[in-house]
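Running co-folding for pyridoxal-5'-phosphate.
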Amino acid sequence: MNNSHVTVLEINLNAINSNLNYFKSKLDKNTKILVVVKAFGYGSDAVKIAKILENNVDYFAVAYLNEGIALRKGGVKTPILVLHPQKDNLGKIVEYNLEPTIYSTNLLNHFIDISKKLKLQNFPIHLKFNTGLNRLGFTKKDISKISISLNSQKEVIVKSVFSHIAASEDLNEREFTLQQINTFNSISKELINLLNYTPFKHMLNTSGILNYTTEAQFDMVRLGIGLYGFGNDTKHTKNLKNVVTLKSIISQIQTIEKGETVGYNRAYKTTTTIKTATVPIGHADGIFRQFGNEVGYVYINNKKAVIIGNVCMDMIMVNVTNIMCNEGDEVIIYKNQQHIETMAKAIKTIPYELLTAISQRVTRVLKE
Ligand SMILES: *Cc1c(COP(=O)(O)O)cnc(C)c1O
């Protein structure tokens, strides 16, 4: 073992494959699957995951240009949708054979101009419509303008039309979601009538696949967090396999006498003699400072050890007074989905944020 890399994020490939198959089992045979690998594959390893899944999925998506370039440089050949390109990126998008999401008339006209300069033919673009998330996208009133721009050129072709649901995990918002689906249906119908070809359609993210395949499966789905083991609800998450485990070791064990303090700002004060373990992972690795002062806990030899005092940049101290352990023993910082969900809830966030916060300083290790 390489001792300079004691803190590792293990990524379980069998779990990834099994989660992919679980979502596939919810879909019609012909529905295409796009796997979202933005933000380093939700904090895991985008390139490795894309390489492994390449033959089992139809598309990958990233948020930004650089993430798409990283996949191409890593040898990924599958089509890659860039969800949020910027005007200045469009040339590079073409250079790396990525496919842009076009979400405004400004971006559309700019991309057509670039395509003419580059003498492209039928270069694939994807049109994003805002149906209620109010984040990014064209609206119904843009349709005629879009179709006029598109019908007067041959450089770009609309490969797909899509939208994004605002609350696919929240069944209390079912009515709003069905409204979004309706809006998307009518927008895509109107657009397709004005073009003389038929782009494919997609709308569902992970929770969408779990809750709305009957209403909005369309031609493709966009699977993100589910692949990494989270279904945004205990009843769904329990059907998914745990993908990531964050591990480190005990660097040092200390005995702290009654009346002493632990860590910066002397935030923890002992009332009896305690035993602490210092672990080489801190807020620079993505362990939020809010986990300090007994909010978060890790596992050592299968027992919970709470984080005491403030989280440092590179270290945490945990209470191991009642745990048999030695320097060098394994520390599990994120054990499984339930642990990550509990930790997320404790600091009023969601697993998405904890996963994507694990910094690039932590070595990623793939496990069969
Ligand atoms: C991130 C993202 C997804 C994936 O969402 P999950 O909830 O992780 O499945 C799908 N579509 C778009 C547009 C996104 O930005």
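Result summary
The chain has two domains: 13-231, 244-367.
Residues 278 and 350 are 26 Å apart (CA to CA).
Job closed.
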